[in-house]
Amino acid sequence: MILYEYPFNERIRTYLRLEQLFRRLAELVSRSQALDHHFAIQTIFEIMDVASRADMKSDVLKDLDRQKMQLNGFRGNPAISEEVLDGVVGQLDACFTALSQLHGKTGHALTENDWLMSVRSRIGIPGGTCEFDLPAYYHWQHSSNEYRQRDLHHWALSLAPLADAIVLLLKMLRDSGSAQKMLAVHGQLQQNLPQGRTFQLLRLRIDPTTGLIPEISGNRLMFSVRLMRQGDDGRLHLAQEDGAFELTLCA
Fold first, then answer.
1. Arithmetic mean of pLDDT, 133-145
2. pLDDT tens across 210-225, in order?
């Protein structure tokens, strides 16, 4: 099954982008080739760009605090395990403390590294990191795998509090929904969202063997899914047959 996720607001859209970048960074750092580590550095810069919004850190801190307040409201409920509840609240507290102790925006400490910033100034230029442009960076790429990984782990350390918080918040959001079987008649489905709840994320799982590609759109009031199929002309066309998939709405 292929999982597609669609955010209903800009904040969750940013969280999903950061989550994807953090996953990519972890994968690239674990590899041993200099080219992989080049793209790991590029990913670090992308994370800094996405997280550079002035309200990014405060938004995450507010979400962590909001989740903690909601969970504490379940205390005394016989259907809720106090031990499990304490564990999740403890994770929220740890993420809140680590993130709040960071000074400035995410990655601010990295901006004080002149060597790293010289790479950042050139990496967005096609072919801008050649040896004649950045000989020191070229030398770094020829150092040992262990040396490069040590540097990358050090640089990623200042991004870790945000990564941990984003991963925890998205996990809690995803766990809030229940999957339902849906059918798009003649490739189309449109539904109003249930009132009384503010949904933030739509998750859609579909069998890849069908060859169907979902195009999702929506807002706080409704959502629509169009199942597309790639034609011989290379373009996407609306599928004419009924298509089944699994849908989860997360609040």
1. 96
2. 999 999 999 888 999 9
